[in-house]
Amino acid sequence: MRLQHAIYRMRGVLLMLLAFLAACGEAERIVEQLRPAPATPHESYTRKLEDAGMLETALGRDWAAAADSALAFPVPISLPYRERAYFSQFEAAAGSWSFNASRGERVRVTLAREDTSNFAVFADLYEVPADTTDEPERRAWADSLAIGFIHDVRRDARFVLRVQPELLRTGSVTVTIERGPSLAFPVEGRDTRAIQSYWGADRDGGRRSHEGLDIFAPRGTPVLAAVDGVVRSTRTNNLGGIVVWLRDEVADQSLYYAHLDTQVVQRGQRLKIGDTLGFVGNSGNARTTPPHLHFGVYVRGEGAVNPLPFVRAGVPMERDVIASVELGSWVRTRSGGVEVYRDPSRVPAPRRSIERGTPLLVLGASTNLLRVRLPDGTTGFVPPRVLEGVDRALAEERFDGGNQVLVEPSPLAPAVALAPDEPLKVLGRFGGYALVRVDGERAGWVAMD
What angle do CA 75, 78, 80 make, to 5 degrees? Predict the structure, then answer.
């Protein structure tokens, strides 16, 4: 609410300016400076704000600061994750979430707007370097019109997804973040339950370690191309028996298939995902074991890497978000002692006393928690069962006529109205202030003392 007072005054001018910016192309600029072209929709929009001088305004600076703050202070989550996030025209805000992903996994981000208004929502995925003094590296991006994107993870890392709408727009967007395999499973009709020997297991009495996965299946089960690629070689050797190397040119890696009973491809042949390249057997040094496929992934310049994340199925999303209250609305605690969680994994925030009747602004909803903002500006997650709506007032109280109604419970906050000389509906209380309803619709804060 801290921008509400300024936006009421500037709204008409800014809306006309933003409409003008949306219609202008790069070729319409009067003066073009020598600088790199924007690489993403977010950068392009930022450039338009900069060219119009809006980044020098309080609203523009808040928008840029919100983008930077979102990268620095994301909400830690576990995948898969889905949240319906709300953005208000009265705030320059951004949402962000951080998660870990392993080399070989595919991260999928999907955006779905919850209304028919035509406003842009920018999504940017960043990889956080192990050396935290370095800047995060952008890996993928989209806006809401592009629905989303996928990113194949090239190294174990932490990632941050930032989602930010354009200025002066109100609406919600459902953000879904999932991870799964970047390769198809290489044995027909099987999945990871058929793996009986994993990466790193001892071989030859500990003299070497297993550089792949052993996937067991009946002899003659089709072995499949796990990616579109080119057969690099087919050969027979004492260790792997009948083997096939399939080159993945996009990812600059090769897939190794060993212990085949037979192979049915030849060098230079192009394969599509799911094409048969051979059949499960136990050739080579697997002659004394049941039929299985030895499957490996080799990266140019590095050698063998753990294939499991490349083929391991992702955890399915449990259920959709069902928000029990309207996003962007005020709620309040039903009782005292409500615990506000720091993140959706229910890690408690620093211990604090949340009294009964404390107003909370609903910013988003995950599958079983609401993301809320406390009156002092801190955010967290609470279960819906501890909250209630504010349709019914706690009380009706008379305040001194002429008292300022503030956008925040702070003496430094701007005023949005003056308290009338009549009883006001009190929606909640916090820190010596009452949240009241004025003009029948707007909510604001009045000092109780």
Answer: 115
